[in-house]
């Protein structure tokens, strides 16, 4: 799994930003980052099909914990679904 830094909308003190033209994103569905986007521009196909462990202030392991998101087999180019929190 990739340790991904770029989830849009997770930094409370960052200026509001949205998707940028020419960039590739996946929507996160379920879990603590539901409805947010992760930028996957420049990721390899393997990284994109593997998913990512994302740092979140709202994991079961407290602030700074990680949560796992990944594609579904039925929609590999679609949104990533929550797979659970990880220590």
Automatic annotation (TrEMBL):
Domain of life: Bacteria
Positions of region (Disordered): 1-30, 54-87
UniProt keyword list: Plasmid
Name the UniProt record assigns to this protein: Dioxygenase
Organism, scientific name: Streptomyces glycanivorans
